[in-house]
Every structure is written in structure tokens, then in C-alpha cells.
Design goal:
- The structure holds 2 protein chains of 2 kinds.
- In chain A, a hairpin with a 3-residue loop joins strand 1 (174-176) and strand 2.
- By secondary structure, chain A is mostly helical.
- In chain A, helix 6 (63-86) runs antiparallel to helix 7 (95-122) and helix 6 packs antiparallel against helix 9 (143-168).
- Chain A has a two-stranded antiparallel ribbon with strand order 1-2. A two-stranded antiparallel ribbon of chain A has the order 3-4.
- Chain A is built from 12 helices and 4 strands, in the order αααααααααββαββαα.
- The radius of gyration of chain B is 18 Å and the shape is globular.
- Chain B starts with 24 loop residues before the first helix and ends in a 6-residue tail after the last strand.
- Chain B is built from 7 helices and 2 strands.
- Chain B has helices at 25-30, 36-47, 66-89, 101-125, 157-175, 182-206, 228-235; strands at 60-62, 242-244.
- Chain B has a single domain, classed as Up-down Bundle (Ferritin), CATH 1.20.1260.
- Classes of the chains: A mainly alpha, B mainly alpha.
- At the A-B interface, helix 7, helix 9, strand 2, helix 10 and helix 11 of A face helix 1, helix 4, helix 5 and helix 6 of B.
């Protein structure tokens, strides 16, 4: 299956397909490398699921789609932490660091379990066989190298949930067997903020600030860019850093302004980042 | 100023201590707000000296209705947080550890930006509907203490910061569904994860590894959510004016 060919086919029947999928021209330019194209082609089921996501984003409200998307990312995270804990580098890590990773892994397992139950309850399709690619994991030859990926996964997860919150706004409560009645948006946000806590802690384990201020060692990665990059300093049309813009006689710095607001990633952007990591 | 953090890897985690209470899942979604953090704030509020608000700061603050009310609610909480951190940042003698001081200064700026952004946005989109400046009441916080001792009746700075940040996260999580406009929901989502980052940082200072430790009736891996009524009951102890949030989101 050829990812780019699918896009061509979609474009043939829907001239707006590319615009909807590609809110960021660089997403597709970044997909032109052979490695990434191959990685995408190796995960056809996932890609197919993401196409509906791109379309769902244009009209509010397909909880099945958003929760399948969330579950995909949670499964990837859960498997990554499983691999971390099973790795030979884990036992050499400080006790506190091991404790933190064990705890975060338990949280991801809990997220997976809830999202699976919700998808069952609403008649959605549960993604399966979403694992962190072993060959890629094998290239992470130290605990600190693994933590680098953990930070990227968590910060990307925060952005991914944030990017889909609008799709859940206004959806009715759902009764989930063995769970209770949930509000889809609220439940997603209750995971979203925990992912932010995970991200903050892993960043401190890596001697980075808990928030994204542009000084981080990974801040130049695509995970912090996108159509709306983390470096954004204008929110809802309000310039946060112009002199006297939001406060008389006060000018905030760009780094403080960017750290004050986290930014979304679209499903398409997350796909470009996550898909190369998924595989056997 | 660079945000360089101290390592946490060297900090010890109390092994054998149950990190996470196993909770029945169903209780989580019925959870309405009796959290440890909220309780800490409420208790601290109860321990304060009863004072009569001065005439200049008394009054009933109504949040209005619709999206303006939810934004006003966020603006109220950000006012409180910003005032708290501004007071910490202004201390000539801080009980915080030297490495923590610049981080609290950063959090003070983040909260001030949230406050000032919200004021600007509300005035732009809902002219005439903004709540007034709140008068904070922090007499239940001992700004000479980093962390309260077991016998202290007042919160230390870290205790109060943790409580405010956790309360903020729960407030945004609980109020998001009240928005009509996805634009404002988006803004709330952008702010709440920064509050969660703050909360994790402060929690780790108090107890290393407690960045997302679940307490009480929380469910493993899920943050709290609280209704505006529950949040404002806690927040009221820190504001001179009377907060009336009964119409938030209506």
C-alpha cells in the first residue's frame, strides 16, 4: 500500500482532501524520504484509520474516531514503557527514575483500558497491534536515550489530545459498562493533563524545564513545531509579547509567552511523527 | 534566565510505599471534588482569622452566563494564582531553596500572562461582562515556610502552590465541557496542560516522584475534575469578595 498513492486517489474525488490533510506543507515534504514513506506503507491499517480522522476533524464530533486515535497513541506509549522496563538499561537507572517510569507505565495501561471500554461502549473499532518498533527501540542504547523518546512521546501526546478536544465538545455523556457515565470531552481532558504531568516529570529527569520555553535540548524537533508551533506567542489574535499589549507598562518575553501556552498538533501532524515509530 | 533544573534522578523514592491507591473505577467518574489538595485549601481557609471584608473589597462577584462566564471563571482562578506567585516572587527573604526561586519567578510570569491574556480576550469578545479585579486573601498561607510542618495550621508556599495548581487543573478539566465555542475550549486546553506541568513540578519538590500521584478516590492515571461550584467553594477562602458562580456555563 502506498501512502502517497492513497492521497492522490482521495484528491481525485475530493479536491479539498489535500488541504484538509495537509495543514502544514512541510508534513508532506517530510514524508518524501524513503524511510518515512516505507514506514507509513508498513502500517496500512493505521493509515486508513487516520484518513477518517482527517475528515472527522472538519465536522465536530465523531467520538469513535477521536477515541481510536487516542488509543493508538496510548498503546504506543504503553508498549514503549514496557520495552523500557524490560530493557537491560533499566536496572541500572536510579531507583527514583525506575519508580517514575513504572508509575507512568501503569497510567498508560489505565488509559488504554478505559479507552478500550469506551470504544466498546460506543461501537468504535479498537486499534490493535500498535507497538513501538523493536528495531527503533534497539537503537536507544542507554536509559537517557530512552528518556529522550519518552519526552517526545509525552509532549506529543499532550499536543495530540489538545488537538482533538474540539471534536468532542458538545457530545452527550456515554454510559460505559463497568465504568459508569462519562463525558467524552472531560474524560479525554483528564488523560490530557496527566500526560502533561508525565511530560513535566520526564523533562525534569532530563534536566529540562517542566514547561516548553524554547531553551530545551529537543525544542528544535518536529514534535515541537507544526502549523502552530510551540514557539507561538500570539493566542486567539492577542499578541502576548508586544509592548503594553496585554498589560500596561509590562512586556513579556517570547520564551515566557510560549511557555505559558501549550499548542496543538493536528492528527495529520501526529501521524507523521508517530507512524515511523509503530511496527513489529 | 535559563530554566535549568536540578536533577531528580538522585532523589530517593520511598520504595515499598504504595504509590497509588487502587480505586474502583466507577468512583472516578462520579468524583466531584473532595480531593486532598482541595481539602488542604479548605482546611487552611477554615483556620484563618475571621475578618470582615473592608467596604472597598466587599461585594458580590457574578460570573455571568455563557462562554463569558466560563472565561470569567478561568480569569478569577488565574488572578488568584498570579497574585499568589507575585507575592512569592516579591519576598525579600524566601524560604524556598535557591534553585527553586527562579522557577517560581517563571511560574509567576506564566500565571500573569494567563491572567492578562484572559482579561484582554474577555474585554475584546464580551465587552462589559468581565468580573472585577479580585482582592486576594492569603492569610491562611505562611510565606515564611517552604512546606508546612505537621503541626502548622497554615500552608507553606509549596503546599499552597500545589493546591492552587491541582485546583486549577481540576477546574479547567471540569469546566471545559461548559464552553459553547471550540475556540475558547482550545484556549482552556492550552492553559490547563501548563498548569499540570506546574503542578507536577511543585509536587515533585514536596515529594519526589509525586508528579501525578493519585490520592483519595482518584482513579489511576486520570487527573481530577471539579465543578465550578466545588472549585469556588475552595477558592472563596482566598478572596475577599463573595464569588457567585451559580450561572457559570448556563
Amino acid at each position: 500500500m502506498n501512502f502517497l498513492h492513497i492521497i492522490d486517489q482521495l484528491s481525485a474525488v475530493d479536491s479539498d482532501a489535500l488541504d484538509r490533510l495537509d495543514t502544514r506543507r512541510s508534513v508532506f515534504s517530510s514524508l518524501t524520504t524513503v524511510a518515512k514513506r516505507t514506514a507509513l506503507a508498513s502500517a496500512p491499517a493505521l493509515i486508513a484509520s487516520y484518513f477518517s480522522k482527517a475528515y472527522a476533524g472538519t465536522s465536530a464530533g465523531d467520538a469513535k474516531d477521536v477515541f481510536a486515535y487516542a488509543l493508538t497513541l496510548e498503546l504506543l506509549e504503553e508498549d514503549f514503557y514496557k520495552k523500557m522496563i524490560a530493557s537491560p538499561y533499566f536496572s541500572g537507572a536510579p531507583t527514583a527514575a525506575q519508580g517514575a517510569i513504572n508509575q507512568i507505565k501503569k497510567h498508560e495501561t489505565s488509559h488504554v483500558a478505559l479507552l478500550q471500554k469506551v470504544l466498546d461502549a460506543i461501537g468504535g473499532t479498537k486499534p490493535t497491534n500498535i507497538t513501538f518498533k523493536s528495531a527503533t527501540f534497539a537503537t536507544l542504547t542507554s536509559f537517557s536515550a530512552q528518556l529522550t523518546i519518552a519526552q517526545l512521546l509525552e509532549d506529543t501526546g499532550v499536543r495530540a489530545y489538545k488537538g482533538r478536544a474540539g471534536d468532542l465538545l458538545g457530545l452527550a455523556d456515554v454510559t460505559v459498562p463497568n465504568v459508569g457515565t462519562i463525558n467524552p470531552l472531560q474524560s479525554a481532558l483528564q488523560i490530557h493533563s496527566v500526560e502533561a504531568r508525565h511530560a513535566a516529570h520526564i523533562r525534569t529527569m532530563r534536566m529540562q524545564s517542566s514547561w516548553i520555553n524554547g531553551n530545551g535540548d529537543l525544542d528544535g524537533m518536529d514534535h515541537y513545531k507544526g502549523a502552530i508551533p510551540e514557539s507561538t506567542t500570539t493566542q486567539s489574535g492577542v499578541n502576548l509579547i508586544a509592548a503594553n499589549s496585554i498589560t500596561p507598562n509590562t512586556t513579556y518575553t517570547a520564551k515566557d509567552a510560549q511557555a505559558s501556552f501549550d499548542e496543538i498538533l493536528t492528527a495529520t501532524e501526529v501521524l507523521a511523527l508517530a507512524t515511523p515509530l509503530i511496527g513489529a | 534566565m535559563s530554566d535549568t533544573l536540578r536533577p531528580t534522578d538522585s532523589q530517593s523514592l520511598q520504595q515499598g510505599q504504595p504509590l497509588l491507591a487502587r480505586i474502583k473505577r466507577r468512583s472516578f467518574f462520579m468524583y466531584a471534588g473532595a480531593t486532598a489538595g482541595a481539602t488542604a485549601l479548605a482546611l487552611a481557609g477554615c483556620s484563618k482569622d475571621e475578618t470582615t471584608p473592608s467596604s472597598s473589597t466587599s461585594g458580590n462577584v457574578s460570573f455571568g452566563t455563557g462562554d463569558a462566564s466560563v472565561l470569567n471563571y478561568a480569569y478569577a482562578l488565574e488572578q488568584l494564582e498570579a497574585a499568589f506567585y507575585a507575592k512569592v516572587a516579591a519576598l525579600t527573604t524566601s524560604p524556598l531553596q535557591p534553585a527553586e526561586v527562579p522557577y517560581f519567578a517563571k511560574m509567576a510570569l506564566h500565571e500573569a500572562i494567563h491572567r492578562d491574556f484572559l482579561r484582554t480576550a474577555i474585554n475584546r469578545d464580551f465587552s462589559g461582562n468581565i468580573i472585577p479585579d479580585l482582592t486576594p486573601k492569603f492569610d491562611s498561607i505562611d510565606f515564611t515556610k517552604r512546606v508546612k510542618a505537621a503541626t502548622d495550621t497554615k500552608l507553606g508556599i509549596l503546599d499552597a502552590a500545589k493546591a492552587f495548581e491541582d485546583l486549577g487543573v481540576a477546574a479547567y478539566n471540569g469546566a471545559a465541557k461548559l464552553f459553547k465555542s471550540a475556540v475558547y475550549l482550545g484556549i482552556a486546553g492550552q492553559i490547563v496542560s501548563v498548569e499540570a506541568r506546574h503542578a507536577a513540578y511543585v509536587r515533585d519538590l514536596i515529594t519526589p516522584g509525586s508528579f501525578a500521584t493519585n490520592e483519595g478516590t482518584d482513579v489511576l492515571g486520570f487527573d481530577r475534575q471539579m465543578t465550578p461550584a466545588a472549585v469556588l467553594t475552595v477558592a472563596q477562602a482566598f478572596v475577599e469578595q463573595t464569588l457567585n458562580g451559580s450561572t457559570i456555563g448556563q
